[in-house]
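Problem 12. The chain below contains 134 residues. Write out its predicted structure in C-alpha cell notation.
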Amino acid sequence: MSRRRSTRQQATGPGRPFQRNDRIGETIRELVAGELERIGDERLDLVTITSADVDGDLARARVYYSAMLAGAEGRLDEVIEALDELRWPLQKVINRNIRARKTPQISFERDTSIEAGLRIEEVLAGLKATDEEE
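Solution.
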C-alpha cells in the first residue's frame, strides 16, 4: 500500500525545490538573456537580465534588468527604448519555447538591487575607515 504525499510535495515533487512559476521564470530569464545577446543591439551593451517573476496565473512576467554602466553614462532612456522595441520579438521567442497552456506577457523593470548593495558597501567601508581613524 502506498502512502499519499502531502500537497506541498505533490506541487514541487521530491527533487524539485521550486514551484512551476519559478521554473518558467528562470526559463524566461535565460531565453531573454540569450536572445538579447544574439540580437547584439549596441544600446543594450552590458545590460544584464537578472531575474523574471511570473504571476501565479501565468498572465504576466516581469523581467528585471540591470544597466549600471548605462545609468552611469546617462543612457537609461536608450536602454528602456531598446527593450520596448524588442519586447514583441522577445515575446515570440518565449511563446515558441515555453510549454504551457498560457504564456506570460513580458514587461521590463529595472533591477536596482545591485546598485543598492554597492551603496551599502560604500557606506560600510566609510564607517570602517572612520572607526580606524579614531
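Discussion. Residues 1-11 have pLDDT under 50 and may be disordered. Students who got a different answer should revisit the alignment rule from Section 12.3.
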